[in-house]
């Protein structure tokens, strides 16, 4: 029983930055592994980054060095800081929560990120 709400998407120029936020409610946030996925038009949804319950991050090769995932368990929020954005980063970005033994995974509604001149 987890509800996720993303925010922070928008239009940004190549080379620019955005920070996405995902606010969670309805369960014990600190016990969930959190992740960001994205889906571009006509493409499969792909994993962007994940962060463990203890705060250990992992990244897709395409974003490593440019994106940073973090979590604030006191605020029940996970973030995705996106720097040096490229046109190919354009997608709908989704927040995800999961753990073994839960009824998940749970998904947010998505937030649009468009990287364009």
Describe the protein.
The mean pLDDT is 96. The protein is built from no helices and 11 strands. 30% of the residues are buried. The radius of gyration is 13 Å and the shape is globular. It starts with a strand and ends with a strand. With 117 residues, the chain is mainly beta. 0% of the residues lie in helices and 50% in strands.
Features:
117 residues; mainly beta; seven-stranded mixed β-sheet; 0% helix
Q: What's this, in brief?
A:
The chain is an all-beta fold and 117 residues long. It has strands at 3-7, 10-12, 18-25, 33-39, 46-51, 57-59, 67-72, 77-82, 91-98, 106-107, 111-115.
Instruction: Give the SSE string.
Output: EEEEEEEEEEE
Distance between the termini: 40 Å
Strand percentage lies at: over 45%
Shape: globular
Radius of gyration based on Cα positions: 13 Å
The portion of residues assigned to helices is: under 10%
Uncertain regions spanning at least 5 consecutive residues: none
Structural class: mainly beta
In round numbers, the mean pLDDT is 96
Report the strand count.
Answer: 11
Number of helices: 0
Biggest β-sheet: count, sense, barrel?
A: 7 strands, mixed
């Amino acid at each position: 029983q987890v509800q996720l709400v993303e925010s922070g998407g928008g239009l940004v120029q190549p080379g620019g930055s955005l920070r996405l936020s995902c606010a969670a409610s309805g369960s014990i946030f600190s016990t969930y592994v959190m992740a960001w996925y994205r889906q571009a038009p006509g493409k499969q949804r792909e994993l962007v980054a994940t962060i463990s319950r203890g705060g250990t991050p992992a990244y897709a090769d395409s974003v490593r060095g440019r994106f940073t995932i973090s979590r604030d368990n006191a605020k029940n929020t996970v973030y995705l800081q996106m720097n040096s954005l490229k046109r190919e980063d354009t997608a709908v970005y989704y927040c995800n929560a999961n753990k073994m033994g839960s009824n998940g995974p749970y998904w947010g509604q998505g937030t649009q990120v468009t990287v364009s001149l």
